[in-house]
Amino acid sequence: MFSDADAAALYDVVSPWDPGAWPADAFYEALVGNADSVLDVGCGTGAMLVRAREQGHTGRLVGLEPDRAALARARRRTDIEWIEGTAADADRGHVRGPGPQGGPSGFELVTMVSHAFQCLVTDDALRASLDAIHAALRPGGLFAFETRHPRARAWQSWTPEHASTVEDPSRRRLRVWHEVESAEDGVVAFTSTTASAGPDATVLRTDHARLRFLDEAPLDGFLAEAGFLVEGRYGDWDRTPVTATSREIITLARRPALSRR
User: Fold this and answer.
1) What does the alpha-carbon distance between residue 205 and residue 198 come to, in Å, rounded to a whole number?
2) How far is Cα 42 from Cα 102, in angstroms, rounded to an integer?
3) pTM, whole model, 2 decimals?
4) Mean pLDDT throughout 10-27?
5) Is pLDDT of 100 > 70?
6) pLDDT of amino acid 101
């Protein structure tokens, strides 16, 4: 058997949070370190916020995550707030919480890292989520996220030939690979398979997922509709501009200090 808890533990092995090794992690670590309060939407197992606390962050840190197994793993750390919910729940009062020292309620920074933004597949989900994130920010707050650039067609490399072999926390050797089922209208449906790495290659688990690939123009349309101003747009983690060969669309979107919303 390969349980949901096993899958959550494996995620930390396959995708460790390491700003020293991964420029994306370093990019977000700098933003988190300079914000007095942070909401990480789709926090997964909570690795980014855990490291922030370990690095001396003394402000409010909140992780919002719909996957119960991932959240159970995050909750091993008790000096961070962990809340079950989706991006559309970001504006709930118990998530937004009080403001610092009597100031306006809401967060200075909201993040969606590790391509979590792409899980917002439908227009309705995008609108509800962006509205909630806008409301969760205090006036002048920042929303930071990234999405894979559709022109890079990253899904073309999601094949069994690009499988990873890893050892999970219980010392099982496993192979993990992806296979695309469809790629239509900007939405890619695929499976993720986990199997034993032995000669029998027994399949232990197959998960299905869908991700949305948005180009800059429609993305900016959704952000403007929600009341955001795009403050920064990068094609790589060194903050270089988006080009025809960029693999990422990295966005810093600001809730205006004076907003009618």
Assistant:
1) 15
2) 28
3) 0.95
4) 96
5) no
6) 65
Reading the block at residue 154, the tokens are 């990253």
| pLDDT tens digits for range 179-215 | 999 999 999 999 999 999 988 889 999 999 999 999 9
Q: Spell 86-115 as b/e; 16+ CB within 10 A means b.
A: bbbbbbeeebbbeeeeeeeebbbbbbbbbb
How much is the pLDDT for 224?
A: 98
* pLDDT at position 259 over 80: no
Please count the other Cβ atoms lying within 10 Å of the Cβ belonging to residue 173.
11
Give the CA dihedral 97, 84, 140, 231, nearest 10 degrees.
Answer: 170
Strand ranges across the sheet with 164-167: 164-167, 173-184, 187-196, 203-212
Mean pLDDT along residues 51-56: 98
Question: Shortest CA distance to 252 belongs to which of 30, 62, 84, 59?
Answer: 30
Q: How far is Cα of residue 76 from the mean position of the Cα atoms in its chain? A: 20
**What are the structure tokens assigned to 134, written together?**
């806008």
The token pair that represents 11 in the structure block: 């995620």
Please list the helix, strand and coil fractions of the chain in percent, rounded to the nearest 5, in that order. 35, 30, 35
Q: Closest by alpha carbon to 206, among 181, 172, 171, 173? A: 181
* Identity of the amino acid at 7: A
Query: Which candidate, 181, 83, 172, places its Cα nearest to that of 132?
Result: 83
* Dihedral over alpha carbons 103, 105, 109, 111 (to 10 degrees): 170
The upper half-sphere exposure of residue 170, i.e. CA atoms within 13 Å in the direction of its Cβ, equals 12
